[in-house]
Hints:
single chain, alpha+beta, 57% helix
Amino acid sequence: MAFVKDMLRMWAHSWKRFISIAMITLLGVAVLTGIYAGCRDAFRSTDRFFDAQGLHDVQVLSTAGLSNGDIAALRKVNGVAKVQAERSQEVTFDLDGRKSATMQEIGTNGIDQPYLQEGRMPKKAGEIAVTRKFIRDSGKHIGSRLTVTPESASSDTSDTSDTNGADGTNETNGTDEAPSFPTKLTIVGVVLDPQNLSNPDGYSAMTSFRSTATTDYTFFAPSDGVTGTLCTSATLLVKGAAAESTFDESYENTVKQVTDRIDGTVKTDRQNARRQELLDAGNKKIVDARAEADKKFADAQSQIDANRQQFNQQVDQIVSMQAGAAAAGAAANGANAGAAAAAGATTPQLDETTRETMRETIIAASPELTQAKQQLDQAQSQLNEQKASTEQTLKTKENELKTSIPQVRWYVQDRQSLGGFSALKSDLDSIQSLGNAFPIVFLLVAVMMSLTAMARMVEEDRSLIGTYVGLGYGRLAVASRYLLFALLACLIGGGLGLIAGFLGIPAFLLVVLQGMYVMPGLRLEYDWLYGSLGIALFVVGVLAATIYACVQEMRMTPAALMRPKAPRAGSRILLERIRPVWNRIGFLGKVTARNIFRFKSRLIMTVGGVAGCTALIVCGLAINDTVADLGIKQYRDIYQYDLMVVSDDSDASAMRTKVASDGRVTSSLDVRIESGDLAISGGGDGDSGKAGSSGSESIQLVAVPEKHLSDLGEMVTLQPVSSGMLGTSGVGKTGSLKLDDDGVIVAQSAASALGVKAGSKVRLTNGDGVRATAKVSAVNRNLIGSDVYVSETYYAKLFDSKDAKNTKNSKSSEDSEALTWNAMLAKLSGSDTSQTDYAESLEEDSSVMKAVSCAHMADSFKFDLMGAVVALIVALAGGLALVVLFTLANTNVSERVREMATLKVLGFFDREVHHYVNREMMILTVMGVILGLPLGRLVGGMLTMALNMPSLYFEVEVKPLSYVIAAVATMAFALLVQLFVNPVLDRIDPISSLKSVE
């Protein structure tokens, strides 16, 4: 009992050490669990929301729409749980200028269901539900009316025919029509689109580099009132996918099995079948047109024949009359009147030649008959010409049918193709990577501080330990006094850390996240396993340090422990050997130098602890500086053009004419831009290549005209880069990189994510979904976006031959058409504001699909979530620095109580004692800061490599001001600690301190 009482008394006396260990453990556990818990809560709530709304696992799009046969084929794929055919239509309306929206039919099979936020769901024709973004931008409300105008349906869906029944056989001969929605609309509800969780009322501006929407808004309408049988897409749910977390690799593997099956057989078969359906429908149209034309021509010919017969009868009557009159006159001049009468009663018989001659004579003599004959002849001639022309047209159509109907392309996409989903996932993944890295530094500092504190605690009780051992107490029992002390401090600190980690930090992160994304049903959850392991990690570390400190002392005999510890032998320090310097240092300066460098353990612990805290602050500020400069570096330095304009292929010429006519362009380069995919090639041809372990990256494929390859360097800064260590990269000379026909130039952001370098083989997918294996000729410096540059010749080599190899009825390579340059990179005159305004005005032009101003992108680029997390990390690092300095300062004072008492006896005033002690701590702090600044840059480089987000490369940047802030913050913490240490020095009693045996 006395042993326990003495142990508790010892614990109470060492309350400062207890608080220090508890605080370090609290901060470490909070960092370890907090960022993880915040991301996990967001992941789980989003996954629950996706499952509740039936967000599709796979989406299938087709360039020719999807028929009933396509839907039936998808239902038969192994692993598919549900298939929902979807119809949509793009419309325009007037909202402070021309705006576009997608009219989306609300699915009837429970997939992609919008989440109701206000009002009710639409039920009948003319009712719609809109997103909160539209309500905010338009100022409309529930009950408002809206009139929209359908955009002209694309030729690849509006003019196609389908003869397939539901089971894929030719059961009906109908024509599939493109979807059509009502145009007089009434808003009855406000909903959240599960495909896009961006918060329109938040402060996020991340859409400046991640937006993938082709229209401004989405309107949701019921099936009532929607016409047209052709589907614009098909959405699928995969069996077993809902049981997995949508953000885990297991979910991706489950979905990938189904997408591989669709890509393997169904896709190719249905592409060919759909094209054949279009060919059959086109042939049927030609046959029907020929039959209809033949009927019309036959009717016209019958009419002409009837008119000609009537005309001939009329002429023949005149001929008969004239012939009879002539015969009667001849008889009157004969012998008797009886003969004349007989002759007059009988029509003379004329041969055909005479009759025809008389017809022509009569027609020529009569203007009316002449005109009638000419009209008949002209009608017959026109009819013959129309017959010949129609037949020639139909024959031309028959010959051109195969080439006019392109190969049908399917696009099989998973959730990663949704811009909102991929943005949320990449944000949370990047923050979680920080949460996995920073606790390591906290743990190392915690072990160092615990070792320092517990070693001093054990050393102070040296004689008591010897007494207990001499009285027969076991060394384990004696060591338990300190082990239980450290354990209790860790448990209390860890428990408080769990509260901060699972409540405080996640609440802060989720407030920031909810400013960027809408996540219904968000709640904080506790993870017993992860929380227990978090505490156990720090308990093991601190107890290991405590055990080491106990073993170091208890390995001696009780007699040796009960005797005072021999003073450290005096020795010269290195500075003493530098006589010119040493001789100029004052007495107190020499004492300070000896105290600093003779006690190596204290030097290492203090400098190491301060350096670690300073490094954490620098690391956080480095991430902040890196993110802050991304937009400026990309859109001011790398992109030298001011404007990028993109149009549909059919509007490319009109777009270039429009831009040229405005007179704002000083120089330009026509290119072709397609959305594609880049993956590590598994060898062989492109189709057989499988993505490597790094997965794949969505890219922007930029094809450059062969005659203007050298002009690319004037629009984009081409600098070859090579990956370095610890977040660095070697950047080559500007202009030393040239685009040629031997390979593609890959952006650094994509190359870093996939581990691609110059000479690598990659699987490249173009905008038509055609895959090919390409060689990487170089990696170009690029921070935002994933551009892949390819020459016109190499593009044709990659994709024309591939298309011919894999596609039935495709055009031969020599007959293939040249690329359509659907985009323009341009340099503009005028200020940044005028360039931004000009880009906005271009987007309202019907020929322009997208216009991007680099000046606007540079100014509007933000990464709010990363900034909030960096602020949190810097705050926690500052707290750790304060605790570390407090622990070291108190340990320093406790070790030197007898020395301080001697100084007071010698006549030192309290202020002089303060200066004597604090000067050593400030020098050690300065040394730690000097070491911590480059160490922070080193750690910052490793952490920014770990971020590795899609379409982003973190080029480590630390501004001089960040170094100053880190140094000043650490020194400020050191000065703050002095305010706590000085009263402790004042309370030292010289008499009692000098009496104690130490």
